Amino acid sequence: MKIISRSICVILASVAFASSAFAATNPMERLLEGNRRFAAGIPARKEAGGKRRMGLAGGRHPFAIVLSCSDSRVPPETIFDQGPGDLFVIRDAGNVADSIVIGSIEYAVKHLHVPLLVVLGHSGCGAVKATLNARKRPSGNFGSITDRILPAVVEARKSHKKDILNEAVQDNVKNTCSEIVRRSRIIQELVSKGKFSIVAAEYYSDTGKVEPVPSGPRVPPGK
């Protein structure tokens, strides 16, 4: 199968939907509704107590996968106002994708039938900032993380935009989306059939809001 380029592998969900009926059937809008509650300071998240906890012991049916940074300020269940069992969460520094991350996504897709992946960067990401400021490749295992972030830093510097860090954060999210599709035939096939969506997004810690990252055009199913 032809490799899907970065400009088309990110299938953005619209943020314009407002009806709660639609939100019940659209995973991305369900996440955004939860984030709006979180940002407004009126979360409605249900904890895993009583019957809910007992129900989860018998199985779970997450409606979205979230790959986010390990930063302690960016807990996906909290910022999307979701409870235990709602999300399949994968976290690492810089929200990068190696074979273990991609394998975890494939597991969620294949065995749990999750229809949506959100790759979530965040403002002021320390891993991206460290890569941006590094004069040489960091020693130890952290270097394997900066190796994956470095292409975004290089691209951001070419943009000559004032906020290079945020530009690099967004480029890194898009690169991660591309890497996931490029390295997974399972995901390639589901995306091409319109059965799986990938959204690049950024969490802004000052407002508490999650916004889709500007990207290329939406991919029509089958392309």
Structure, explained:
The chain is of the alpha/beta class. It has one domain: Beta-carbonic Anhydrase, Chain A (3-Layer(aba) Sandwich). Helix content is 46%, strand content 14%. The chain has ten helices and five strands; from the N terminus they run ααααβαβαβααααββ. A five-stranded mixed sheet has the order 2-1-3-4-5, with helices on both faces. α7 (126-133) crosses α8 (142-159) and α8 (142-159) packs across α9 (164-182). The longest helix is centred in the C-terminal third of the chain and has 19 residues, at 164-182.
Secondary structure: number of strands: 5
The sequence of SSEs as H and E is: HHHHEHEHEHHHHEE
Q: What's the mean pLDDT score?
A: 84
Q: What is the fold named in CATH at topology level? A: Beta-carbonic Anhydrase, Chain A
| Major beta sheet summary | 5 strands, mixed
| CATH architectural name | 3-Layer(aba) Sandwich
CATH top level assignment: Alpha Beta
The total number of structural domains is 1
CATH superfamily: Carbonic anhydrase
The helix content, as a percent range, equals 40-55%
Strand content is 5-15%
How large is the radius of gyration?
17 Å
Q: Spans of 5+ residues with little confidence (pLDDT < 50)? A: 1-23, 216-223
* Number of separate helices: 10
Q: Helices and strands: which structural class? A: alpha/beta
